[in-house]
Amino acid sequence: MPKKKIITHQKRAKPELPLVAVDVVALEKKLPPKAARSHHVVIKVDKVGKSFPVGESVVPVLHDVSLNLYSGEFVIISGPSGSGKSTLLHSILGLEPPSAGSVIMRDVDLYKDLDDQGRTRFRREKVGVVFQQSNWIKSLSVIENVSYPLWLAGESATSARQTALNWLEQVELAEWADHHPSELSGGQQQRVALARAMVTDPGIIVADEPTGNLDSEASEDMIALLAKLNREQSKLILMVTHNLSLLPIATRRTVLKDGRIIYDQHD
Ligand code: ADP
Ligand code: MG
User: Fold this and answer.
1) CB of 83 closer than 6 A to ligand 1?
2) CA 180 to chain centroid
3) By alpha-carbon position, which residue is closest to atom 26 of ligand 1?
4) Global pTM?
5) Atom 14 (ligand 1): residue with closest C-alpha?
6) pLDDT tens per residue, range 52-78
7) Mapping DSSP to helix (H, G, I), strand (E, B) and coil, where does residue 9 land?
8) CA torsion angle 170 176 181 185 (round to 10)
């Protein structure tokens, strides 16, 4: 007789995140109005498929995903855990070669026109990236971490520091410049991560669950900053979130399920 699986209380599926709701109606009143959708395609995801080899078999994760992302859009991708959201973002970021299809960003075919090094350089120049957990260089202060992408781009330390400070001011953390990132709260760290993402002035921001570890207040601060960048500076934002209360702030809502787009709606 097969052994019966005993599901203990701890093992029972828990909701992935506590419900953190942001009052977007109140927030919307503090934000500039949404911009109209442009006709300029910045990222073209064309029939992307992705499978991972697992042991002897191959597990399909993305199926025939096609998306045209336009300049100035704020796209929120949601969907169940394991539906392929992060894998899709990684492919768009040039970090995960698709098994089929192509990703074209600003007319560059990431996996045909560029090699690994080229993709890294391209991403550094064109895309600001924020993940759920910020990866700090532990030996560096807040402002040095924010300056780091500019150092890589060859800017002098003085000019990098000035640009980094401007961005820290925009996320209201200038007074923490010379502290260590670990002294900051989770919400503050995510705002520093956003400053670091913006320091090279990319036109595109890709954020994978940037409010995933934050409470309502910190989530609101983070989303307000992203919305302002989108609405005042026409940054294309591509964000994955589980927080469905944030959906109205976006200009487009896309849902992924089992590696397929099952819903895609824009204002
Ligand atoms: P989501 O971000 O929507 O939660 P992911 O894109 O992280 O989903 O993962 C989708 C599926 O792909 C999951 O079943 C995950 O286990 C699988 N997966 C992701 N990365 C790999 C990998 N490197 N190797 C094998 N399977 C992977
Ligand atoms: Mg994910």
Assistant:
1) yes
2) 23
3) 52
4) 0.92
5) 82
6) 999 999 999 999 999 999 999 999 999
7) coil
8) -80
